[in-house]
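for the writeup, i need someone to sanity check this before i put it in the appendix. the sequnce is what the collaborator sent (i think, or maybe the updated version? ugh). structure was predicted straight from it, no edits. if anything looks off just tell me and ill rerun, i have time this weekend
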Amino acid sequence: MRLNAMYLKTKSDKKVYLPTPEEDAVITAAAMSDPDALPLTDAEFAKLKRVGRPREVVDAFRATGSGWQTRMDEALMEWIREHRS
């Protein structure tokens, strides 16, 4: 662990350490040198943020408390069984 390191705390209270400006520069240079792993542009990233389950569906399942992901999975599996061709 680095002294005086910057970090973010997750909901579960875990620390995610942020790279120093020097480390970030090395990471960015490595990514930019690999044509198969170029960082996304802002426009490309904005498109990705719209992908995923509708927020209100996740919120409704999450509001049911612990085990919501299992219940969501079960609901999706039931839908698949009922709608198989």
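The chain has a mean pLDDT of 86. The longest helix spans residues 68-83.
thx in advance!!
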